[in-house]
Write a structure and sequence with these properties.
single chain, alpha+beta, 11-stranded mixed β-sheet, 8-stranded mixed β-sheet, 19 strands, globular, hydrolase, protease
Length: 450
């Protein structure tokens, strides 16, 4: 599998800059434009039964042109070939079409543009192994195991420029390796490695840990009754919780219209544990420090010591609700959420848990009562019963139904020192750059329903 719609040997930043320079000469004095550039050069590897089943390289680029005339505007997305003449011709066609479209549109009362000539550059080169080296290491480590996994890695490029003189460039190399080890009865242990470099020793340690967890499935399965249990949620499980909350809970628009799951946290009616602090970490993250709308993203504290102190405000929400924008995307979702670490050492997790549930992952999450941030979902993969600080049995799949104001609020006891980076493994259309940096959490009460 090799896809090369963008075959240019020029550096992506030079390709982007040349298109911007041409556009500046192509628009009239009454027109303004913004140009968003997105490209990647990615390796993909699929594994099944610890063997490489598919490997390939994808190199692609696209640009989204916005034309603005007063308060009227429209967008047009084009695929780029890497050939300067062909790409300028595609943008010229897009510009011609946009002029016809914009002329028919009404004014947008909530249009807000940043007309300052800002500049931003962030280059994170990374240190990734070749696809061949990764394939060899994974198949060697997992030899004799039923491993199913997917690797995606390489540089991604994002650029923004406007006729007002702003220019942003973001270039970051990263990789994700998402895999599961299965035993003959179909039980599995799921793991993910995500980083800006390929650390073979860390991958080996994660593989060893997964193999040791898989061995516990040889013990008789424990069937738990519905009820409240002491529980440890690993970073991957907490990432599922945060992922659901991220669909609008921090959004200024959702908060203004009373549709946020964190509405009671925002109003001060309820609180999380003082151990919970979340922030949007725009600077230095794998996501660009600017948005397709042309605003620079800002670091923003969202929750501090259990209290909601900030929200994600897009330019449109800022204009509609009289707020100050902080570079949030139109969807007002976090792109790089970070939770503060705690004091619980990794080697002390089971001992501190004592007797209760070790939850490696969760899935199929949804709200059972959004007004109090009550979530429901299923335990998944490595979920074990622990007694006296030792794993004694795997646990049958169970449904939970609980509010974060409980298990991340009054019942939260400890947060781990170590945090795991989780980078989006979505490759729908292109590789995505959203990420979280999360610890594990120990709670004294987590409710299972069936």
């Amino acid at each position: 599998m090799t896809t090369t719609p963008c075959a240019s040997t020029e550096k992506p930043v030079d390709v982007f800059t040349a298109l911007v320079d041409w556009l500046r000469t192509a628009v009239s004095t009454e027109e303004h434009f913004t140009l968003w550039y997105s490209a990647e050069a990615s390796d993909f590897i699929r594994f099944n039964q610890a063997k490489v089943r598919q490997a390939g390289h994808v190199q692609q680029a696209e640009a989204t042109l916005k034309l603005i005339q007063g308060e009227r505007h429209a967008n047009f997305k084009v695929a780029l070939s890497g050939d300067p003449v062909a790409d300028r011709s595609s943008l010229q066609d897009a510009l011609t079409s946009l002029r016809k479209i914009v002329a028919t549109l009404p004014a947008d009362p909530y249009l807000l543009m940043d007309t300052s000539p800002w500049r931003s550059e962030n280059i994170q080169p990374g240190d990734l192994a070749s696809a061949g080296e990764i394939s060899e290491q994974v198949t060697t480590l997992a030899k004799g195991q039923d491993l199913v996994g997917f690797y995606a890695g390489g540089p991604v490029y994002r650029g923004f420029a406007s006729s007002w003189g702003s220019f942003g460039w973001h270039e970051a190399s990263s990789c994700t390796f998402d895999w599961s080890l299965f035993e003959p009865q179909g039980n599995a242990v799921k793991s993910m490695y995500a980083s800006t470099y390929w650390d073979s020793s860390k991958v080996a340690m994660q593989m060893d840990s997964a193999q040791r967890q898989l061995a516990h499935f040889g013990k008789p399965t424990r069937q738990l009754s519905p009820g409240e249990y002491r529980a440890y949620l690993a970073p991957a499980a907490l990432n599922e919780v945060v992922g659901l909350l991220n669909w609008g809970s921090f959004s200024a628009r959702q908060l203004a219209t009373k549709r946020s799951a964190l509405q009671k946290l925002h109003s001060g009616q309820m609180s999380l544990s003082p151990l919970v602090s979340w922030r949007e970490q725009a600077s230095g993250s794998l996501s660009p420090a600017f948005t397709p709308a042309g605003f620079q993203r800002q670091d923003k504290q969202l929750v501090e010591a259990g209290k909601m102190v900030g929200q994600l405000v897009s330019p449109r929400s800022a204009r509609e609700y009289g707020l100050t924008q902080n570079g949030a995307s139109n969807g007002e979702n976090s792109q790089s959420l970070v939770m503060e670490a705690g004091t619980l050492a990794t080697e002390d997790i089971l001992k501190t848990l004592g007797t209760g549930l070790y939850i490696g992952n969760l899935w199929y999450l949804n709200y059972s009562d959004m007004t109090v941030a009550r979530l429901t979902g299923m335990t998944r993969f490595a979920c074990f019963w622990v007694e006296n600080g030792e794993i004694v049995a795997p646990v049958s799949t169970m449904r939970f139904d609980d509010s974060i104001f409980n298990f991340l609020g009054s019942s939260l006891e400890a947060v781990t020192q170590n945090r795991d980076l989780c980078v989006s493994d979505s490759t729908y259309g292109q590789r995505h750059t959203d990420s979280t940096l999360l610890p594990g959490v120990l709670t004294s009460r987590f409710t299972l329903t069936l």
